[in-house]
Design a protein that fits this description.
CATH class of the largest domain: Alpha Beta
CATH superfamily of the largest domain: Impact, N-terminal domain
Strand content: 35-45%
Largest sheet: 6 strands, antiparallel
Order of helices and strands: EEEHEEHEHEHEEHEE
Number of strands: 11
Number of helices: 5
Length: 215
Amino acid sequence: MDKYRTVKKDMVYSGEITEKKSRFIGYIKRVESEDEAASFLNEIRKKHYDARHNCSAYIIPGSGGSGDILHSSDDGEPSGTAGKPIMAVLEGEGLKSVILVVTRYFGGTLLGTGGLVRAYTEAAKEAVKAAGDKGIVTVAPFIPVSFSFDYPKEGAVRRLLEKYGVFPADTEYSEKVLFRVSIPEESAGAFKDGVRELLSGLDGYEENEVIMNEE
């Protein structure tokens, strides 16, 4: 998996524009599955039960080598005037594991195809802008690694971990010390070489599947 950008967990960011008296309110939230995306869309629909449209788009990263899941909805607007522009904003910003919903309150004036595309695009951008640098995080692949070593080397091993900015997720003390850590994929090779050199041969070393964590 490659790095991608998303928004912070359990946060909802929103922005709003007005176009010829129609209100367009954008909401963006982190989701990890299609079920979570559907649940959030339902929340917005309940919140804005009196709105004319609740258009949306989401991107869920694929797993196990499968492609990303992309879905968009015009929710009654002319085809291609709402869901696709919202999706284009997500793709343009490199955002995944998110859903972006734009609610429209009709202001009485028809905007035309071009006007709708511009309005939904701008409302989606306002939601992303509301998240800003503090609300957007980078998600990168981490490799879980476990290894064991003799007690006298624990201090040196911990100093090596600090060098790479990682800490044991789990530690076991028995005949030897067992550390389980998650290493950023991009520095995993250098880390493993460092451990091998430090311990003069790795005992019980094993790699597991790639997991995801926030940088």
